[in-house]
Amino acid sequence: MNPGRAAHRATAVLLAVTVAGLVCGGALYLAGEVTAADAVWAVVTAVALAPAAWWVVSALRGGRMGVDAIAVLALGGALAVREYLAGALIGVMLATGRALEEHALRRARRDLTALYERAPRSARRYEDGEPRLVPVDVVRPGDLLMVPAGETVPADGVVAAGSALLDESALTGESLPVEYGAGRPVRSGTVNAGSAFDLRATRTAADSAYAGVVRLARETEAASAPVVRLADRFAAWFLPVTLLAAGTAWWLSGDPVRAVAVLVVATPCPLLLAAPAAIASGLSRTARHGVVVKGGGALERLGQARTLVLDKTGTLTSGRPHVSGVVAAPGADPGDVLFWAAAVDRMSSHVLAEAIVRAARERGVSPPQPSGVVERPGTGTEGLVEGRRVEVGKATAPSHPEWERVQRARAALDGAMTVWVTADGDPVGVILLRDTVRPDAARTLRRMRAAGIERVVMLTGDRPEVAESVGVVLGVDRVLAGQTPADKVAAVRRETGRAVTVMVGDGVNDAPALAAADVGVAMGARGSAASTQAADVVLTADRLDRLADAMDVARRSRRIAVQSAAAGMAMSLLAMAAAAAGMLPPAAGALLQEAIDIAVIVNALRALRSARGTRPAVDAATESLLRRFELDHSSLRPPLELIRRTADELGERPGPEDLGRLREVHRFLTGRLLPHERAEERALYPAMGQVLGGPEVTMTMSRAHAEIERLVRRLGRHLDLAGNAGLRPEQLDDLRSCLYGLHAVLLLHFDQEEEAYFSLALGAGSPA
After folding, report:
1. Residue 362's domain spans which residues?
2. Within 10 Å of residue 495's Cβ, how many Cβ atoms?
3. Residue 311 bears catalytic tag
4. What sequence ranges are listed for the domain Hemerythrin-like (predicted)?
5. DSSP state of 517
6. Residue 211 and residue 91 in one domain
7. What pLDDT is recorded for position 214?
C-alpha cells in the first residue's frame, strides 16, 4: 500500500476511535455512569498516547525534537492525575489536528498532483496507414500520431496537416483554447479541444515539455521551506519553555493538575500546522498560474527577492523575430524581394526563415515550391525558384555599395537584423527583422517593483546599441551587453552578494547563471532543457507576467504563514499563562487549544484563495474587449510598413504609381484603421477607465487618436489637390512628413496600447 495512503487511513481510524470514545463517555456521564465514563475516556487517552509516542520516536530518529513530545507528556499527565476527560479531548485534538493538516496539504498539493496524474500513458501511432494504440514510451521523433478529440497530446511535435485547437490550461493556466495551423509546434500535456488532428513527433515522451513539468512537480515539497525549518527550530526551544512553565506552576501551587493544564494548552504547536499548510497552498496557487516552483524554499526566497536580473532575448523580447521592413535594391521591386526569399526559406528551419515565411503569408504573398535547396549554416540558404538561382542570407560582394551602406546604417539605427536577397547573383533587396519587446514586459517590471524589487539588471550577449534600446524602453537600472556565459555568472554572483536575487533566462547559455542566483527562473515554454533543469522556478507559459503573479503568491503565502503562526503562538502563550494561574482547567484548556489549532489552519488555507496582488482586476466583459482589439492590432500591424515604404519611394518627380500607392495607403487608413480607432474610443477606453481608475488614464491615448485622424485628413486633402492630374512637386515634402509622422505615431500608439491595455488580457481572470 502507498505509505501516504496508509498514513491517511491510520489518521482516519484514530480520529474515528477518539471521537467515538469521547461521545460514548459523554453519554455515559450524562446517564450518571461517571465511573464508566471515566473508564472510556481513559481508554481513549491511552489509544491516543501510543501513536503520539511513535511520532516522537520518529522525530528523534530524524534528529528533531518536535512538540509532539508535549502531547505525550500531556496525555501521560492526564492519566496520572485522573483528568480522563482532558486526556480524551487531547486525543481528539491530536487526531483532528493531524487530519486537518493532512487535508490542508493534500488540498494544497492538488494542483501539483494533477499535473502528473494526467500525464499521457499511450499514443495513437500510424502503422501501415492505421492509427494503433501504443505505450507512449515507444514514440520516437518522426513518428506520425493521431490525437483524437478530448485526448492529451502525448509528445512534443508539429501539426502535420490542417489545424489543432488546444486547451493549454494545464500548462499555462489560460482558459481559452488556442488554434495552431499546419507546421506549428505544439507541446505535450495540452488537450485537443477540437477535432482529431495528426501530429509529427519531434521528441520522445520522456524528453517532452510535459514530462519536464511532471519531474518538476514531483520535486516540489513544502517541507523544504525555510519558514517550515524555522518551525522545527522554534519547537526546540518551545518544548523546554513549556516544561519550565508547567514545572513552575506545579511548584508554586503544589497542584500537578495545573502542570497538566499548561501541557494541554501547549499541544500541539500552531506554528508546525500553519507553515506547511500556507507554503503548500502557495505552491498550489503558482501551479494554477502555469508556474512550477521547485519546493517551498524557492517560493519563500522568491517572496524575499530585492534584485531582478533578466536575459534579453526570449525573456524580455519575444524570441521570435518579425519582418520590420522590406527594401528593394535599385531597379528591383519590394514584392519580388519577399517572393524570392519566402520561396527559398520555406525549406529552412532557421528562426529568421520562419519569420520571413510568416511575413509573406501575412501579406498575401504565395511563393512557389523551390528546387535544389541547399542550407549553409552561418551563411544562408539558396535554391532555384522559377529558373533563377536565389540566395538568402549574408551579403555577398557589394554591387550597390552606397545603397547597401545606407541599409546597414538604417538597420543599426533600428536595432534590426539584415537578410540579403540576390537572384542570379544580382541583389534584389534586403529584409530587416527585429525581435520585439514583449508586450507584457514593461507592466511586469512595474508590478515587480511594486511588489518589492528594488533593482533590475539586464544581461545579454547582444550588441550594446540593441541592448540599450531595449533597456531604455523598459526602464531597467543597468544594462550589461556583450556578455559571455561566464560574464553572466559573475554578474549574478555580484548581485547575490548585495541582496536576494532572481535571475530569469531561457537559453542553454543562461543555465550557469540561473544556478548561481538565489532563485533561477526559466522560461520553460520554449526554453532549453538545460535552463529548465538549472532553475528553481519554471514558467510553463511563454509569458513573463506569470513571474509577477508567482511573486505575488510567494509574498502572500509567507505573510500568511508567519501571521498564522504568530497569532496561534500568542494565543497559546496566553492560554498557558491562564492555565498556570489556575484559571483554565485541563478539559477547558484542551477545547480552547483545539479551537486555536483549527483557526490557525483555516487562516493558513487563505493562501489557496485568489487575491488581486499587483495585477489590476479585469472583468470578463473587458477582457473580451481587450482580446478583440488585440486581434485587430495583429492584423493591422503588417500594413503599417506600407506607409513607411510609400514615403521612402516618393520620387523627386512623382508619377502615376506614386499616386496609386498613396491612394492605397489612404484606403487602408480610412477603411480599416480609423474605424478601429473609433471603436476603441467608443467601447474599449471607457472600460479601461473603469479598470484603471477613471477616464483621465486614457486621455493620452485619445490624444494620439486625434493626431492620427488629423494626419489622415491631411493626406486626404493632398489626394484631393492631386485629383486626376497627379501630384505636384511642391506637395512631396509635406507628403513625406505626413507619412513618416503617421508611421511613427501609429507604431508608438500600438506599442503603448499593447503595453498599457492588452497586456492585462494575458492573465486576466486569474488573479494571484
Report:
1. 322-435
2. 23
3. yes
4. 627-760
5. S
6. no
7. 63
